[in-house]
């Protein structure tokens, strides 16, 4: 079955498009009633009417998007076919957004993001973010493949992340070796460093384990960025949130740190020491590298925003740790291990009985 919980948390966190919160946990197939409800919503968005299609196409920057070689403009019928008439698996659902697992004509799996409740102001910012997102090319940022522009708000088609989000993996009873966790940390850090190096910044509230998607090889994909002009507050906020993410990776405790102040986090570190580390990865031989990862996290969590390192520096420090721990044959072994763990997680998720 499709992922029971995945991406969308826009209902509670206005800054994100992908997460596992507010997802329909019942795991039931779409009933005739829900199909009818979705049809009504989509009809209101102009999906089944050509009346406003030309106006929406122009308002959603259709002529500009058509010139972008790396972005496909889908027709209404193509979106309907990709989602099997909106009866394919719903991988996320909240009051303002529904995400479908779909299939392109070449059998490529995709995630189709449909906004079902928007206002005029959000519609404009959504279109602007879509245009910026379309020019981002980084292996650790979820890729926007295309869009449908004749609805009130563009329907977006993303690459599909087969292993859901990092938060689910950390919460699940999956084997999750240190080498893979460090690999994920490096990938996320490099993605944020890339975004910070552009003329826009990645809003920090999205840097959470729930918004880190994992593909079928456990390659991390930062998802749902919003874009604003460069500012110290925005980039340093990303750094702080990334520090929390690092702690979650090495402790396997999600969310518990986010409500704590930097002082409280440092006190907990001094008090608990090595006992904070997840037992699965706290082998004696790995304590030193765990301590170094923790120190990177503590630097990211400094109270003074100006004293926090840049994401480029964070990525470089983590990459050095990865290189020290994994060289030559060990890198090949890590690649093989990643495939094995990814396969194990995928099978476990497929066999998981949907929660009721």
Question: What does this molecule look like?
Answer:
- The chain is an alpha+beta fold and 356 residues long.
- The protein has two domains: 32-159, 2-Layer Sandwich (Phosphorylase Kinase, domain 1), CATH 3.30.200; 166-351, Transferase(Phosphotransferase) domain 1 (Transferase(Phosphotransferase), domain 1, Orthogonal Bundle).
- The chain is built from twelve helices and ten strands.
- The protein has helices at 32-44, 53-59, 62-65, 76-82, 120-133, 166-171, 178-196, 232-251, 262-272, 287-300, 311-325, 329-351, and strands at residues 72-73, 90-94, 97-103, 109-115, 144-148, 155-159, 201-202, 212-214, 220-222, 227-228.
- It has a six-stranded mixed beta sheet, covered by helices on one side. A two-stranded antiparallel sheet has the order 7-10.
- Helix 7 runs antiparallel to helix 8 and helix 8 (232-251) runs antiparallel to helix 10 (287-300).
- The two termini are 15 Å apart.
- The model is unreliable at 1-6 and 8-33 (pLDDT under 50).
- Keywords: ATP-binding, Nucleotide-binding.
- This is Protein kinase domain-containing protein.
- One of its GO terms (biological process) is cell surface receptor signaling pathway.
- InterPro entries: Kinase-like_dom_sf (IPR011009), Prot_kinase_dom (IPR000719), Ser-Thr/Tyr_kinase_cat_dom (IPR001245), WAK-like (IPR045274).
Briefly say what this structure is.
This protein is of the alpha+beta class. Helix content is about 45%, strand content about 10%. The chain starts with about 30 loop residues before the first helix and ends in a 5-residue tail after the last helix.
